[in-house]
Amino acid sequence: MAYTITLMKALFFFILSFLSIDGKFMIPADKSQLESWFETTVGYVSDSSSSFKVINVRVDGSGDFKTVIDAINSIPSGNSERVVVSIGPGNYTEKITIGTDKPFITLQGDPDNMPVLVFDGTAKTYTTVDSATLTADADQFYGNSAPRPDGKKDGAQASAVRVGGDASAFYNCKFYGYQDTVFDYNGRHFFKDCYIEGTVDFIFGSGTSIYMNSEIHVIPGDPTSFITAQARSSDTETTGFVFVHCSVTGSGQTAYLGRSWFPYGRVIFANTFLSDVVNPEGWSDKMDPSNDRTSFFGEFKNEGPGSNFDKRVTFAKQLSEEEAKPFISLDFIDASSWLMPPPKLY
Questions:
Q1: Long-range Cβ pairs for the range 23-32 (8 Å, 24+)
Q2: What domains does the chain contain, in order, with CATH numbers?
Q3: pLDDT, tens digit, for every residue of 254-294?
Q4: Cβ partners under 8 Å of residue 151, min gap 6
Q5: Which of the residues in the chain have pLDDT under 50?
Q6: How does DSSP assign 113-140, residue by residue?
Q7: Which residues are annotated as catalytic?
């Protein structure tokens, strides 16, 4: 299995802009209302490309460029306008860097004919942080085609994406990997309608992120899996991972929702379907049991066989409505100051 990223409609959305959004930021409790709420709250950019520049990348040579690297390199340093890099179908095996001097970039693929970014870097060669296909220093993303770690090979893991800049959104993305699939490194992030799979710590880092209406899939085969490892190191940090109206899929009671990697790790699952892949204990402190006193692992109105709280560890928190409110709102990521919707090219 390869570590790959499949580009769908408005796949990678890298921005550093400010937008005032009218409407209520509380995410509706009724999942059937999500789309209408999102369109009212955030909206969509017009189908017309007049409001942004489009660069076409086609592996067959029919576009402006044949590689994503060349398209990114054509964007001038200090870019201040929205640029959409439209990527045609096919496999793009290349290591890509988007520097801090190039904000306002969107990488977009056709959802009906999706391109794939792939690279064969591993942690042994590049380290986990740099083991990737796409590096965007303003808003970072990576993808890899590394073998599945077997627990014996040193440095076999690889991140499919590292997003380390502030204010980035991912719409209709697929992230394929095993260990360390999504390195949610730093900054405020929004993931909507995505698919993320993995085995160990496959969503990790110190980002401040909302994952909404996304499938989190635990790949079978490992005796124990950990979905998240959040790296909040003090009670003054505002970071954390929030999963709202998601589904955790898989089977076998092998997966923990998260583990206490850092002393103040903070992860919340709300209004989410938890399949029986979730271990009845829910969360793990095997990294350091002393973190039980300071970590924040919360659950709110989840459903499914994995949501039963009877055998949960003592440091898990079943949140009340008031306790959950700060996390099930776009205010958690200060969305009104930066979140923009994807453009429509297809």
A1: 25/329, 25/330, 25/331, 25/335, 25/336, 26/325, 26/328, 26/329, 27/212, 27/244, 27/245, 27/271, 27/328, 27/329, 27/330, 29/271, 29/301, 31/213, 31/245, 31/271
A2: 4-337 (2.160.20.10)
A3: 999 999 999 999 999 999 999 999 999 999 998 789 999 99
A4: none
A5: 1-4, 7-23, 45-49, 123, 126-129, 131, 139-149, 155-157
A6: S-EEEE----HHHH-STT--SEEESSS-
A7: 201
